[in-house]
Structures are given as structure tokens and as C-alpha cells.
Amino acid sequence: MRFDLARLFKPKSIAVVGGGVWCRSVLEQCKKMNYQGALYAVHPKADNVAGIKAAASVLDLPQPPDACFVGVNRHATVDVIADLSAMGAGGAVCFASGFLEAHAESDDGASLQNDLLAAAGDMPIIGPNCYGFVNYLDGAPLWPDQHGGQVVESGVAIITQSSNMAINISMQQRGLPIAFMVTAGNQAQIGLAEIGAALLRDPRITALGLHIEGIGDIAAFEALAAEAKAQGKGIAAIKVGRSTQAQTATLSHTALLAGSDAGAEAVLERLGIARLESLPELLETLKLLHFSGPLTSNKVVSMSCSGGEASLMADTGLTRDIVFPELNPEQTAGLRAALGPMVALANPLDYHTYIWGDGPGMGAAFSAMMQGDIAMGCIIVDFPRADRCSQAAWDCVFEAAIIATRSSGKPLALVASVPENIPEDIALRMLEHEILPLCGLPEALCAIEAAAFIGGKTGAQSPPILQGQQPVTSALLSEYQAKSDLCAFGLKAPNGQQVSSLDNILISADKIGYPVVLKAMGFAHKSEAGAVKVGIEDAAALAAAVQDMQAQTWLIEEMVTGAIAELLVGVVRDPAHGFVLTLAAGGVLTEVLQDRVSLILPVEKDALHSALDQLKIARVLAGYRGKPAANRDAIVDAILAVQDYVIAHCDQVEEVEINPLIVTEKGAVAADALIKKGERDDR
Q1: Residues 149, 104: contact at Cβ < 8 Å?
Q2: CA 77 – CA 118 distance, rounded (Å)
Q3: What pLDDT shows up at residue 681?
């Protein structure tokens, strides 16, 4: 880590520079949270700010502050940061905007941000253009606005690039203990990953939530993921925005398939960071990670007193990577003893209402259900609204859940099918009794899936993500050259020749042997341009095909037979994330089928086999309706050959695509190949 953030994030002294409403609010927030350290105000003219005696300059403070909130204009901010750095302060939050984020509106925004970095030197700064942070563990808010949190002994850390989103998250009423809230702003000096790694080292912080607009420093995120694994803590993230991946290069199907978000998706998956789509999903996932940490598996039992709820749980689970295992004999025996003969036993379980109100009896049923090879249990329960109904009859659920939790030693969640049906006071009561409140059935299952995904990645060790220097120029190789270059790395391609006259075409065809394939060179998408003819059986048909294709150069190849399936194997350089490998159903219907999976290079054999299993066409590869199975090892070898080529040319390659890779019972052959590469900049 480049910067020591301990003094800044756990300050024993706080200084606030400025006298506006935002700076007064920071001082008031410190008083409200009963901050126990030294508190200073700095203003060149005022005698005091928010009742705190003011020094005229940071240089007049009695000691270098551990943390400073700088709430003056952008030009003055640079001067204040320079003084703080020179006096040995612990770090600062830069509130002002008008830096790099305003480069489109301000001619000096970028240069001013560079001046800010130079002024900071080795002193850590957060921002600029951010609200700062609230340390709820030590009651230390460098925060200029309202927030909904309170002092806690432990909890999750959340880092966002949006200050307003941080305020919204702090107002949650789901029982999630937030230990640290940080807004990173421009990340001019310190990024999300470096902040996150520092926070995860605090034993009081149980999990990390991220709102990511752009990943940026891949190596820093790899270090963050390694830190999380070392600490046994999970990371969950919302990734918004889109990278600058060059989708304009529509020469390949891969660029269209991968899309601008595939690189981020692949990076997060590679690093074991669970990706969520909404704030409710993120909050419920963080709650589960705080409560139990990453789960050991995705195997779950569910209990409810309604067949409708049991069915809803089962149906909702179909959209998630969650397993409801069949009941084993131990579970069945225990359930039968607790519930009697009238209840159909299954998972998810409808335990009916025969034993409702009998806390010990319900506890026995729940305890029996929690046996076996499962990671956690869920009890669906929606509490009545307290302003119109009585919640007293629901105390039996608490009693039973406590019994089941203690007997099984496994996490147990009470899940509300409607999110607001676990109000905050009930959620906090659950946590006091070591029961997990999860608000909303879809969000709960999403959280379980995410925690199981993180748990499955806990011991995984991956090589560093491949990155290369961006080439200064790029151009397409001919198909013949592309195949020749890839074959040097182990790819299999049809026997063929590149020729420029009809006589040579006919001679080459005789040597190759009919049937043959003829292609006109110079077309990116040959099928659409009518520049390819397959299954040519004799010289007369070949001569006619040549006449139909107006070209200067042709490629003639042997016809690959025995095809079981066609695949696409493509790699695209993503400027934001490295090299994105896309595996997909191939051929002319690639975009129509949209059957694809993306990974980030480098990949290993096991990951490739797993990725192939995720494709819908995997059923065809396995042998469908009596057809032979494809040679999976040959497919993997072909993909690894492409990877080896990209690794060897990572400073030149922009795109590589094999489409189709014709898969047979015996092998995998590249029927078409595209390479776009350039020259590296050695200046």
C-alpha cells in the first residue's frame, strides 16, 4: 500500500478548514457523535466556527491534525493541502469540486488536480469532490451533511464514488450495522481498492461493500481481493457505468458479444467479488456477510407455515444458483416426530400451522430441518405492522429460531417475503439473538447466492490478470496469416493455401483433395459478403465459384467434416480490464443465439471446462440425442493456444477471433481466424 491511512481513518485529532455551512456541519456532526479526540476549527477571519475557537491557518494549530476536512474553494484547497503536508498531518478530505471531474467545463480542472497531488506529496488525501467519511466505530465523522448511522462496535464498511448514494445508504432501516462509510470522489490519489484494503485490516470491520463506477487500477483490486481472502471477509459490489472498450471495432463478433461490461464482470468474478444489481441486494448481502461471513456452500433449507410461501421460495430460487437439497433420513425422522403424520415433508418445507404458538415444538422442527449438509436455513416470516396489529403471537418464531440456531450452529435467517415486514426494531432484536433478518425474498436469495459465491472463491489462487501496453497502430492480418501465426502456438487449422490465380487454385485443390472450401480474401464477414463457398466437390464447381467471387486473392482449404458443433473463441483487449476471453456458440448465428460466457486472461483448464459447461450448447457438446460427444480436451487446447498467442503478443494484440471453431468427435479445427494487432510504443 502506498499510503498509511491509519491516522486519517482513526483520528485522535480533527481539524476543519473553512467556515461555510458544510464546515459547520462537520463540527456539529463531531459533537453529535460525541467525538472524543481534539477538535479544531480553522478560519482566516472568524473567531470561532460552530462554537469552536478558530485558528487563522492550519500552521497555527497546536499540533498537526490526524485528519482534516478541507472545505474551501478549489484553489485555496491546494494551498491548504500543501501546508498540511509540510507540517506532517495525517491526511485530509478534499471537499471542493472543479478538478478533473469538471475538465469538460473548466480548462484548468485537470492541471489543478495535478497541483493538488503535488501539494499532498506523501500525505494521503480523499477526493477531491467528495463528502469524506464517517467512522462509526470511533465516532469520527469528517462528513458535511446528515447521515443515518450511529456508533457501532462492529459492522461493514461501504465505499462509494457518489456522496449522495452514501447518504441514501446510511438511511437504511434493515438492521445492517455500518461501521465505516467512505466517499472516494475523484480518487485522485487513493482509489476504492486501496481504501478498502486498509479498512478490511480493522478486525471490527466484517465485510466490504463497493459502489464502482470504474475499476481503474487492476493490480490494486487484485491486492484488495487478496487482502479480503487473507482476512476471511467478503466483498460485494455494485458496478455501474460502462468501460471504454472499443466496440467500434465491429470487425469481429467477439467485440459485439462481449459488450462494454463484460470485462468488469469477468474481473469481479475472477477476484471473488460478488456483483449485485441493486442497493437492496447489496445491503442484504452485506448483512449476511456481516452475520456469517462467506458461506461454505449454496445448499439451503427453507421453512414456512404456508404452501404458497414454500412454492414462492422454490420458484424464486430457480433464478439463483441455490440448491434446496432433498431431506435426509435424520431430517425426516426429526420432522416427523415434531410435526406428526399430516405434514408432507420436503425442502422447501410447509410446516403448516399445527404447531404455531408452540415455541419448543417449532424449535424441534426447525432444528431437525437444519441438520445435514447445508450452509444455512431460512424461515419465511412476515411480521404484522405494529401500528394496527399485535406482534405478540410472533414471539414463538423468535423462541424457535433461537433453539434451532443453538442446536445446529449454522446461520439461520428470518426472511420477510415483503421487505418492510421486518421493521428495524424487529431486525435489531433478531441480531441481538444471533438470528439474521433478511428483508425481501428475492433479495435474500440473491444475498445467499452471493455469499456462497464468495465462499467458493475463498481458497482460489489465480495468476495476475494479463495486461499489455496499448499498441500505437493496428491492422488486420489476412486469414491465412492469422491461422499460420496461431498454429505456431498449437491451434489446429484446415490444410490450405493462399493463391492469386485460377490455375493455382485448381492445382492446390488437387493437392488438398476434394471437397474443398473457397474464400475470397479481404472481407471481415465473408458469409454476409458471399465470399465463401463450402463443400466444392470438383474442379468445374471450383472454377465457377472463383468466377462468382471477384477478388485478388483466395484461400482454398480442405473441408472439415464430422462437425458436432461450432464455437466462437475470441479475445478482445479491454483498456479498462485487460484481455476479455469470450466463448460462445459460433457460426453465422452467433449474435442471434447470444449463448456466451466471458472470462479474463489468463485462464486455466479447470476454468475453461467450467465455462464451457455454462453454455447452452454444452448439451450438444456432451452428445445430444444419440449423437457423439465433442472432444472437450481438444476445445480447451484450442482455447489455450489462442491464449498463449495473446500472452506472447500482449503489447500488440487488439483482437483474436476463431469463428467457427468446428468441434468434432476427434478434435477442434479453426475454420476461420481473425487477428488485429499493431506495434508497441517503445518510446
Answers
A1: no
A2: 12
A3: 64
421-443 as b/e: b if 16+ CB within 10 A = bbbeebbeebbeeebbbbbbbbb
Q: Is omega for the bond preceding 177 within 30 degrees of 0, making it cis?
A: no
User: Which H or E run includes 61?
Assistant: none
Edge to edge, the sheet with strand 125-126 lists 48-49, 52-55, 38-42, 13-17, 67-70, 92-94, 125-126
Domains of the chain: 6-213 (3.40.50.720), 295-457 (3.40.50.261), 495-558 (3.30.1490.20), 565-679 (3.30.470.20)
Question: What CA–CA distances, in Å, run from 269 to 200, 208, 290, 457?
Answer: 19, 16, 21, 9
- Whether the model pTM is above 0.85: yes
CB proximity list for 75: less than 8 A, separation 6 or greater: 112
C-alpha cell at 345: 415433508
Residue among 51, 32, 53 nearest 42 (CA):
53
Predicted pLDDT of residue 1: 54
CB 637 within 8 A of CB 490: yes
Sign, CA dihedral 211-217-220-222, equals: positive
Report the alpha-carbon distance of residue 85 to residue 87 in Å, rounded: 5
Q: Quick one: DSSP state of residue 37?
A: S
Cβ neighbourhood burial of 201 (10 Å; 0-12, 13-18, 19+)? middle
Identity of the amino acid at 476 = L
Q: Is 323 exposed, middle or buried (0-12, 13-18, 19+ CB in 10 A)?
A: middle
Average pLDDT for consecutive 10-residue bins of the chain (683 residues)? 88 96 96 96 95 96 98 95 98 93 75 94 95 97 96 97 94 97 94 96 98 89 96 95 45 51 90 96 98 97 95 95 97 95 94 91 96 96 95 94 95 97 95 96 98 90 89 90 96 93 90 92 71 91 87 90 94 91 85 85 95 94 89 97 97 95 96 90 60
On whether the CB atoms of residues 139 and 102 are closer than 8 A, the answer is: no
CB neighbour list of residue 62: distance below 8 Å, 6 or more residues apart: 40
Can you tell me whether residue 285 is helix, strand or coil?
Answer: helix
Strands 412-416 and 436-439: parallel
Nearest to 590 by CA among 652, 649, 658, 521: 658
For residue 402, give the C-alpha cell. 433461537
Dihedral sign for Cα 447, 578, 244, 609, please.
negative
What pLDDT sits at residue 474?
87
The torsion region of residue 76 among left (phi > 0), alpha (psi -120 to 50) and beta comes to alpha
Judge contact between 130 and 185, C-beta under 8 A.
yes
Interatomic CA distance for residues 241 and 160, integer angstroms: 13
Sign of CA dihedral 181, 183, 187, 192: positive
Q: How far apart are CA 304 and CA 289, in angstroms?
A: 23
